[in-house]
């Protein structure tokens, strides 16, 4: 699998391009602020043809460039229905202070928007990705798993050493702990985590060192005895 990415814009949001190999079709994950040029550069470098944009959630720093990226390539955007309204109303996901800065920003939905659901299996660009609904950062947050390759695109659910904030509209701390317990803790330790911000990590490293995963562990429920 080919995975290339870059941190986009002032928010340094990780945008990923994923394909089976160079010269093939691909998907784009989370094209954030001013991501168009970076996406185009990766597509040229690896000779890729995008077939879809996948969004881990609807916050402005992850969807800023979704409409121009989709429009230029005539591809659909996929997002969970609970966050779809943020595509055209980004201020609804912002804090009061951020609304003063970005409240006048106008975004629009791409022409073709498709909705994600928990457990859905996406077969796009020769890839198989499983959708996990992981609310807590936002109501419609999702992560994408490539099970055969043990890779998790975690969005703002899980970072190296931390987790996504829960103090914005739609965020909820007990809910994100439940998402971590049900969707992250069961994964193998060697699962590579590619987060929405910051460096990559592994489930094993986070299980051993991330205080939030340790706090989430009781929410995972009892384990089966030997």
UniProtKB/TrEMBL annotation:
- Source organism's superkingdom? Bacteria
Question: What molecular function does GO assign, one term?
Answer: metal ion binding
UniProt KW keywords:
Hydrolase, Metal-binding, Zinc
Q: Which Gene3D superfamilies match?
A: Ribonuclease Z/Hydroxyacylglutathione hydrolase-like
Q: Among its keywords, does the record have Signal?
A: no
Domain Metallo-beta-lactamase, which positions? 12-197
Which Pfam families does the annotation name? Answer: Lactamase_B
Q: InterPro entries given for it?
A: MBL_Glyoxalase_II, Metallo-B-lactamas, RibonucZ/Hydroxyglut_hydro
Q: Which cofactor does it need?
A: Zn(2+)
SUPFAM superfamilies attached to this UniProt entry: Metallo-hydrolase/oxidoreductase
Q: Does the keyword Zinc apply?
A: yes
Query: What protein is this chain from?
Result: Hydrolase
Q: Give the organism, scientific name.
A: Nonomuraea cavernae
């Amino acid at each position: 699998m080919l995975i290339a990415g870059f941190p986009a814009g002032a928010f340094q949001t990780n945008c990923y391009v994923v394909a089976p190999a160079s010269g093939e079709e691909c998907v784009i994950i989370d094209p954030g602020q001013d991501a168009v040029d970076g996406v185009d550069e990766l597509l040229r470098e690896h000779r890729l043809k995008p077939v879809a944009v996948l969004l881990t959630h609807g916050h402005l720093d992850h969807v800023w460039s979704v409409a121009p990226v989709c429009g230029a390539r005539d591809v659909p955007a996929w997002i969970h229905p609970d966050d779809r309204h943020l595509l055209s109303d980004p201020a609804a996901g912002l804090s009061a202070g951020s609304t003063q800065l970005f409240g006048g920003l106008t975004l629009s939905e791409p022409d073709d928007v498709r909705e994600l659901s928990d457990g859905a299996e996406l077969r796009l660009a020769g890839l198989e990705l499983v959708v996990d609904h992981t609310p807590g950062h936002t109501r419609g947050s999702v992560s994408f798993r490539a099970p055969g390759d043990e890779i998790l695109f975690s969005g703002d659910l899980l970072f190296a050493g931390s987790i996504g904030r829960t103090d914005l509209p739609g965020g909820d701390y007990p809910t994100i702990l439940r998402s971590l317990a049900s969707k992250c803790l069961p994964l193998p330790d060697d699962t590579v985590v590619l987060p929405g911000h910051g460096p990559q990590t592994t489930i094993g490293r986070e299980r051993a060192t991330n205080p939030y995963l340790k706090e989430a562990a009781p929410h995972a429920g009892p384990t089966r005895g030997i």
